[in-house]
Design goal:
Shape: globular
CATH topology of the largest domain: Dihydrodipicolinate Reductase, domain 2
Bound molecules: nicotinamide-adenine-dinucleotide
Oligomer: single chain
Number of domains: 2
Order of helices and strands: EHEHEHEHEHEHEHHHEEEEEEHHE
Strand order of the largest sheet: 13-12-11-7-10-9-8-14
CATH class of the largest domain: Alpha Beta
Largest sheet: 8 strands, mixed
Structural class: alpha/beta
Length: 327
């Protein structure tokens, strides 16, 4: 397949399957080699990605970077190894699309942003909500001033995380870097700031680890830089999946209710018809187009920095019992 971008995978577990399929669907890129240390993951990956059995497999990501001719990599490994894998890939001159969370410390996030600038390579995060028409509509309305000044934000994410991730690397802090706040919660923290365009100034958090070594449920009370108040609930011990967003401004409100869709009302509660934009891009197609110079990244590494800033502040607050300023 000459002319196509050559992409390597670092990690080929559950989420890698969708990345493979979406990259192939662009018809502008091909996956040419894989790094995966687990036979079991590899078998699952091959079963779901016909044709991938022929690809060379490296047990160590360094061998992938050293021995393969690549344009870019997709980082799909446990959270605490993202940093060194992304850094090594950028230094090797490769473009990087990483799964969330980009990294697990503010220090690492800043170092990678600097490195991407220095090496002039693309670094993007697979935050898929940025590509969803509903969140794009909400962001667009706020950017156009249709909500006036945003004064309150509330977001809830509930998943059966405690039960489903038992015995896996996700509940081992050495590999996950933290619990559900840093895992699926990373999406929630990111999207609230991306949609509103507002930065969190201060966090007061309480966390419940249940009987594990990582946070399962986290309750966050937040103050934004414009003075708006808000809260986030990251609930890892729920019976199933539920996500909910409420944004209240001086000229109206947006209420996103799972299963019911998006409700937009004006300042006195009259419904405003919601016309969602047609938008069919995804993190993989955007990554490919950015490498080809045809698009701007929808999920730049600064989103990863802002997210870990809030996450670290929440961890510190939960540990100290005090509100913590977000740097
Ligand atoms: N965007 C989303 O909605 C979403 C959903 C699920 C997972 N993810 C993210 O994707 C990443 C992978 O998650 P997953 O669900 O595929 O987990 P997984 O456990 O299914 O797969 C992770 C894979 O990485 C491999 N691995 C372990 N150590 C490695 C190393 N040092 N180098 C390379 N590979 C290594 C494991 O063998 C495993 O196959 C995580 O960052 C996770 O947060 C994102």
């Amino acid at each position: 397949m000459p002319g196509k971008l050559r992409i390597g995978f670092i990690g080929a577990g559950g989420i890698a399957i969708g990345h493979y399929q979406r990259l192939l669907a662009t018809k502008k890129a091909q996956v040419v080699a894989i790094n995966e240390p687990s036979e079991q993951s590899l078998r699952q990956f091959h079963a779901h990605c016909p044709g991938s059995e022929a690809l060379p497999v490296h047990r160590d990501y360094r061998d992938l970077l050293k021995n393969e001719r690549l344009d870019g990599v997709v980082v799909l490994s446990p959270h605490t190894v993202h940093y060194e894998q992304i850094a090594a890939s950028l230094k090797r001159g490769l473009h990087v699309l990483t799964e969330k969370p980009m990294v697990c410390t503010i220090k690492h996030a800043k170092a990678l942003i600097d490195l991407a600038k220095k090496t002039k390579r693309t670094l993007m995060i697979a935050y898929q909500r940025h590509y969803e028409p509903t969140f794009r509509y909400m962001r667009d309305q706020i950017r156009k001033g249709r909500l006036g000044e945003v004064q309150f934000v509330q977001a809830i994410q509930a998943q059966e995380w405690l039960r489903l991730t038992r015995g896996t690397w996700r509940q081992d802090p050495a590999l996950s870097g933290g619990g559900q706040l840093n895992d699926s919660g990373s999406h929630l923290v990111d999207i609230v700031m991306w949609v509103t365009g507002m930065k969190v100034k201060e966090v007061y958090a309480r966390a419940d680890n249940f009987d594990t070594r990582v946070d399962i449920n986290t309750s966050l009370t937040m103050t934004f830089e414009n003075g708006a108040l808000g809260g986030m609930s990251v609930i890892g011990n729920a019976p199933g999946w539920y996500e909910d967003h409420s944004i209240v401004g001086s000229k109206g409100a947006l209420y996103l209710r799972q299963g019911l869709g998006l409700i937009h009302v004006d300042a006195v509660g009259r419904p405003i018809p919601v016309k969602l934009p047609k938008y069919t891009k995804n993190p993989n197609s955007n990554f490919v187009d950015v490498i080809l110079g045809k698009a701007e990244p929808e999920t730049p590494p600064e989103c990863g920095l802002r997210t870990i800033e809030v996450t670290e502040a929440a961890w510190k607050s939960a540990a100290s019992g005090r509100p913590v300023r977000v740097p």
